[in-house]
Amino acid sequence: MAPTFDICIRGTGIVGRTLALLLARERLRVALVPDPAPRSAVATDVRAYALNAASRSLLESLRSWPDAEHATAVKHMQVQGDQDGCVHFDAAPQGVEALAWMVDVPALEERLAQAVRFQPLVEVVDIPVAAPLTVVCEGRASTTRSEFGVHFDVTPYAQYAIATRVRCEHPHAQVARQWFLPQGILAFLPLEGAQGNSVAVVWSVPEERVSALMALPADTFAHELQTASQLALGNIELIAERATWPLQLAKADRWCGAASTNATNGPAARSWVLAGDAAHNVHPLAGQGLNLGLADVAALADVLRTRDYWRSVADLRLLRRYERQRKAALIAMGLATDGLQQLFARPEAPWQALRNWGMKGFEHSGLLKDFVARQAMGMR
Question: Which residues form the FAD-binding domain (predicted)?
């Protein structure tokens, strides 16, 4: 007899696997469907995410947090403007172990995959299966989202992200560094533990520069990074391939709904819901993309866990409660990242003076600066 499932999750990335484990913990039977298309043409995965305390606590509860070598604590953060404006964040004054942790994506995905293999209530299946609820966690390029009739409102930035990894002459000292420059936003994010001298690079560059930068030989590209980073960590050596993707601000118009009987979305589902990048995208300058996705699945799992015993997991009242909660949480982050991107994209002198003045004021703002830091760390 074929197994019956309570929930079908489409997407086996970090967000999808985390949700599957959370739901299985609530004794729900979950079918997990792999992404329909490969995520990247780069042979070596260069991705690393900044995860906050809330995300770490969630993953630790699932026994899926990577070891210290693959989850580097960020003790300090330095943000440099294009003049002399500068903002510093430190973990110690906040009374926390770290501002965030830089986590190797391959290591985290392997921990989650291992946990899924040992969870009998989660079954990885080749194709979508019938279930009362389908959760779409396929990422920004989701095809299932459009099959459910969802409009994905995309505002493209005239920027591309270039990601890679470099080895530096000097140790990173657990400092995350970010430069807001006329030629783009550059981040050096510490890797390989407290004593490491390797960093993950995310460079948001104008669209017209990306092709030329991607075509540069490795040593020439490294020289460009050295110049942009003002030799903060000395000489730089490229140790990974480069990946690139267009940047955008995007949000689905609906995050849940009833499945149409005439839809071409595979086996019957009574209801559907979106989570993670399938529901929203923000600029990576604040490093909050995956934190938002993990907060989505934590909220969805909590709504389903606390439902009345007589309510189905497909009950639209529950799903709309999740939608309202997460849309409200996304507004502030979307406005903040979009506002910063727009502000620093303007090269004119008056705008440079304005943002330089703003950074200096924020650095000495006391309670406001503490509030922003604690929000980014996932602390209330």
Answer: 129-329
Nearest Cα residue to 11 out of 119, 134, 169: 134
Domain segments of the chain as ranges = 7-376
17 phi and psi, to 5 degrees?
-70, -40
Measure Cα distances from 184 to 19, 23, 372 in Å: 35, 41, 23
* 102-133 exposure pattern, b = at least 16 Cβ within 10 A, e = fewer: bbbbebbbebbeebbeebebbbeeeebbebbb
Other CB atoms within 10 A of residue 378 CB:
19
Residue 364 Cα distances to 85, 232, 340, 345, angstroms: 11, 23, 18, 24
SS3 of 277, please? helix
Answer yes or no: are the C-beta atoms of 89 and 77 closer than 8 Å: yes
Alpha-carbon gap, residue 204 to 206, rounded angstroms: 7
CA distances from residue 195 to 74, 170, 172 in whole angstroms, order as listed: 12, 10, 8
Does the pTM surpass 0.85? The reply is yes
Residue with tokens 């604590």: 73
Cα–Cα dist 130/134, whole Å: 9
Query: What helix, strand, coil percent values describe the chain, rounded to 5?
Result: 35, 30, 35
Say which DSSP state 365 is in.
Answer: -
- Reading the block at residue 197, the tokens are 């001298």
Helix (H, G, I), strand (E, B) or coil at 96: coil
CA distance 73 to 78: 15
- The larger pLDDT score, comparing residue 25 to residue 260, is at 25
CB 313, CB 304: distance < 8 Å:
yes
Return the structure tokens found at 44.
């070596």
Which CATH code for domain 7-376? 3.50.50.60
pLDDT at 336 over 70: no
- Token readout for 98 is 């770290």
Nearest to 112, CA basis, from 137, 86, 131:
137
Helix (H, G, I), strand (E, B) or coil at 205: strand
Residue 155, exposed/middle/buried by CB under 10 A (0-12, 13-18, 19+)?
exposed
* Contact partners, residue 41, CB within 8 Å, separation at least 6: none
* Cα–Cα distance for residue pair 253/249, rounded to 1 Å: 13
Q: Assign residue 27 a region: left if phi > 0, alpha if psi is -120 to 50, beta otherwise?
A: left
Q: Could you tell me how far CA 362 lies from the centroid of its own chain?
A: 25
